[in-house]
Amino acid sequence: MTKRKQAETALKESEERFKALHNASFGGIGIHDRGLIIECNNGLSEITGYSYQELIGMDGLSLISDDTRATVIHNINTGYEKPYEVKGVRKNGEIYPVRLEARNIPYQGKNVRVVEFRDLTETKRFEKEKENLEGQLLQAQKMEAVGKLAVPPFFGSSIKRQDQLSNIAAIHTLIWITEFRLPPNGVGR
Description:
Elements: H1 3-24, E1 28-33, E2 36-40, H2 42-48, H3 52-55, H4 69-78, E3 84-89, E4 95-107, E5 110-119, H5 121-150, H6 158-180
Antiparallel strand pairs: 1-2, 1-5, 3-4, 4-5
């Protein structure tokens, strides 16, 4: 086998490994050159609703809502590389919370930016559910405290107190369960 053929084979294998890793990501990944998407994975298609073919050549900033786009432009221009949250826009026009994290990298002889999109819709929903349950727990605790003050102990109100304690325990259990339903990567905590 000639050196040229070996180099071509090695390049092809390298590209296949890159593509496999690229598509194995749990988020959407896009590579862009000054905003123009030049490569992406299936995850970005799934998150945004656009097909791979539609995404290639698209202005990546159109995937970000108007009211948070300035933040993304600033982070691109300054080379910011830490995670941050903005609002994304799906193909159907739906606005959704998204966490972005990007890096400048060399790619095919150019300096480009690779960005990971993490859809935070479920995380935000679980956080809101947890807050609601915590509020219910607090309210139940207040009601229990009021009940203790309002009912003299000599009236045999142990049944009422037991019901209140059962309600508080049930709400506390729901909060605990909700915390463990958050995505395993703990995004949003």
